[in-house]
Amino acid sequence: MRMLRSVSLRVQLLALQLAIVLVTVVSAGGLAAWLQAEQIRDSYQDRMVAVADSVAGLPSVLDAFDDPDPSSTIQPLAELIREASNVTYVVVTDGDGIRYSHPDPERIGEPVSTDPSVPLSGEVYVGTQTGTLGRSWRVKVPVFDAGGTVIGTVSVGTLESELQDDLLEDIPTLLAWLAGAAVLGTLGATWVTHVVRRRIFKLEPDEIATLLETRDAMLHGIREGVVALDDAGRVALVNDEARRLLDLDGDVSGRPAADVLEPTLAAVATDDADVTDRLVLAGVRILVVNRRSATSDGRSVGVVLTLRDRTELHDALRELEGARSLTEALRAQAHEFSNHLHVVSGLLELGRTDDAVSFIDRVGRGGTVTRTVAEGVTAPAVSALLLAKAATCRERGLTLRVDAESRLDDDGDELVTILGNLVDNAADATGHGGTVDVRIDQSDSGEVRVLVADDGPGVPVGQRQLIFAAGFTSKTASPGGGRGIGLALVHRIVQRRGGRVTVRDAASGGAEFEVVLPARVPAGARP
Q1: I need a labelling partner for 288 at 20 to 30 A (CA). Which of 1, 165, 230, 433 fits?
Q2: 413 and 360 in a common domain
């Protein structure tokens, strides 16, 4: 094995193919020689049967059996036929196996050296036997008289050495053809070796194995998801991060992309144009997708998708935006409070104490940040979200009102995503001077009900199912595909939780979204 590894792939391929060519040529040569020998033997057999039948049926031969000296008539005829038919011998015997003819006249009158029982029984014998002339391929037929009685035999044979001589005459031609086939096979093996080496970029097996191991280590070690499709749109490769992002289980190689990927992601993969940093919703994750066509020697061989998870970044940006809005509101109120202090200071310096007290009483209630969440909303994340959204709405000239009867203890980060998207959409819909109303109820059993209403234009009845589809938006589409994700994400989170989300006309004239989330199943319990 170590010795084989030290030999180059080119030499191994060439040696293997030459061995195959050699075995094939030798096998074909042996088969051809055997077929030729059988053909020669069959040809001689047909000739000998014809000669034997003709001799056994000659009237002169049959009449000679009644003569006092049959051999005087049969011997010349037998020799004439033997020389004309190119066989080794034509022997005629009587019913006791006594020869009436033989190539050696001295053998006439003697019994035959082989068993004549088969032809004397009326059957035809074909086979190889050893006689006085040597080992021969022979045919023995019976001779019948006019009444159908066997009165003798005719034996026609050819020496096995003559058959071999005929075969050896054909061997040079056969060897020439085999040599030509071997030369063509060698040239073909050399060409195939060259093509294979060129196709694998003249790499050795160890180098190919190293490249594959390195590629797998890199693909499965990077933090970005990678999905490769072949030119037929089938999945060729999926790394570990892509499996995690797309929630894929088992081996998906060779399956069509439409059966494996989300519809929005499959649409990007099958599109003809390349894509850069497009936002796509896959399950409950927001992914940044890049699509590149893979080419080799100027021809397309497939598509490569890279996936990055932007879900956490999306939530972080949302929280950052809320914190920035809250900071701006605090800064504005601090500036306003400073102005109020200057007024109070001036009034006191002027000795107008009563006016200073009146001014403080008039503006005192507006000098702090208004707490918009209800006292019953004790979930820290949701309370902070609503406080940030209230500040953002004030900066945009909107009003965010949270029902004082709202109640929420805690329901995880899912509700933060749901509520944040619904409030953002409502704020965008109502515009400057509008109002967004929020109510959150949590029952004793743990079921949560969220209502978000606005006084904007509302949602047309024909679009109330479409708005939850990924990519659908009534706003101006962004170049990166960032629109049409919020409500689709809300819908998928609610579906995964086993709840429901509906939209209807609000009492204020706009749209009202209702989300109902069932109580959480305790860890370890089966739903």
Answers
A1: 230
A2: no
